[in-house]
Amino acid sequence: MKNRSNLIILSIFLIWRTALFVISFISLKYFPFQPRFPYSDIFLIPSGFPKFLWSFANFDGVHYLTIINHGYSAQYTQVFFPFYPYLIRIISSTFYYVSPIVVGIGLSNIFFLLSLFLFNKLINLDNIKNAFWAIIFLISFPTSFYFGSLYTESLFFLLVLSSFYFARKNKWLAASFLGTLASMTRLNGIFLLPSLLVEWLLQKKVPQTKISNLMKEALKCPALYIVPLGLLIYMAYLQLTFHDALYFWHAQPVFGAERSGSQIVLLHQVFYRYYKILTTVQFGSEVFFISFLECFFTIVSILCLIGAYRKKIRLSYLVFSVFSILIPTLTGTLSSMPRYVLLAFPIYVYLSSIKSALLKMIIIALSLILLTVLTSLFARGHWVA
After folding, report:
1. Whole-angstrom Cα distance, residue 56 to residue 380?
2. Rounded CA gap, 324 and 336, in Å?
3. Half-sphere exposure in the Cβ direction for 9 (13 Å, CA)
4. How many other CB atoms are there within 10 angstroms of residue 161's CB atom?
5. What does the DSSP assignment read for 169-185?
6. How does pLDDT run across 201-218, given as a tens digit for each residue?
7. Structure confidence at residue 4 as a pLDDT band (50, 70, 90)
8. 125-155 burial, b for 16+ CB within 10 Å, e for fewer?
9. Residue 267, φ and ψ in degrees, nearest 5
10. Long-range contact list for 203-208, CB < 8 A, 24+ apart?
11. Nearest to residue 122, comparing CAs of 314, 301, 312, 303?
């Protein structure tokens, strides 16, 4: 039964991966390449690889290639955390005849396949009957192509799921160490700290009415001391090298999207800003389309997490997801939100609990249509998330 399940997951992955390459290939015939990012003429076009392949290294991918090839020599690339690019750098140096583009995209796909296997195991720990549907919702999500791109999504997703899985198995040192790697991969890896603390307290069954007991028990959790190390090590490096431990945060506004790096903007203010955008820009324009998607994904993800809470999906998973979705909005924008919500995996578990098979199929069909559109746009250099 286990082997059959893994074989099904492998088959779904291969279909997904092949379909994305086909979509990228077909988009070459209908959309001109209009890169909205730098370095495509340095790292991608001269690579000699087919366009449908290197298109999955667009946008953040070229910044990771810069770090892989030259370290943090390019100004403001410090917003990208080091574990993913330096892992590619080490492997590329070992197999020097293999391009970092191939290594990066290859690793991302391997990490995502492993994530699918682990996601299935994690769901089954709670005896959820619709694990298959959850995987289908995940893989058909409109921005799932990032899992197969030269981005941190797949590695980070694998680390998060692994950390939760080992925590559920009461292997806290392993769970905490994986949390360290996650916090060295992306800033929101630090959100594993409160999430694992919640999981620790759930397992210890400390009465929630006694705050003092909760605090005493929380201080015993290894995650409290180990998970932040990844972020702290990177901050120490930034301080020693660039004299700014928070360089990764202070450089955020440089990458556009009117992201604030100096003040906190509340969610209702962000939604008001998007109301102004959607009522002033030309209806049907690309700016309107992307702004609408950013707002739509944010609202739907919040509603799904509320539904997941009502379905009593594991509280520690929900804590991680809520932080991952809400904290980025404090920068004053919903930019990249269609990509950020991709990692809020309780959403897929919640969607899998929908009783109507017809409704599930409709959601998946619409997701696949949007996945096709967004993959095509991304492949041809248009900003998606």
Report:
1. 10
2. 12
3. 23
4. 23
5. TT-HHHHHHHHHHHHTT
6. 999 887 766 777 788 888
7. confident
8. eeebebbebbbbbbbbbbbbbbbbbbbbbbb
9. -60, -40
10. 203/170
11. 314
Q: What token pair was written down for 108?
A: 């991302």
pTM higher than 0.85 for the full model? yes
Summarised one tens digit per residue, pLDDT across range 136-192 is 999 999 999 999 999 999 999 999 999 999 999 999 999 999 999 999 999 999 999
Three-state secondary-structure class, residue 251:
coil
Average pLDDT, the chain: 93
The identity of residue 237, as a single letter, is Y
What is the total residue count of the chain?
385
**Encoding tokens for residue 47?**
């690579």
DSSP 3-state of 378 = helix
Fill in the amino acid letter for 165.
Answer: Y
Burial environment of residue 236 by CB neighbours within 10 A (0 to 12, 13 to 18, 19 or more): exposed
Q: Which pLDDT band holds residue 117 (cuts at 50, 70, 90)?
A: very high
Return d(Cα 124, Cα 120) in angstroms, integer: 6
Burial zone of 108 (CB within 10 Å; 0-12 exposed, 13-18 middle, 19+ buried): buried
Q: What pLDDT sits at residue 255?
A: 66
Residue 316: C-alpha distances to residues 42, 201, 322, 325 (Å): 43, 10, 10, 15
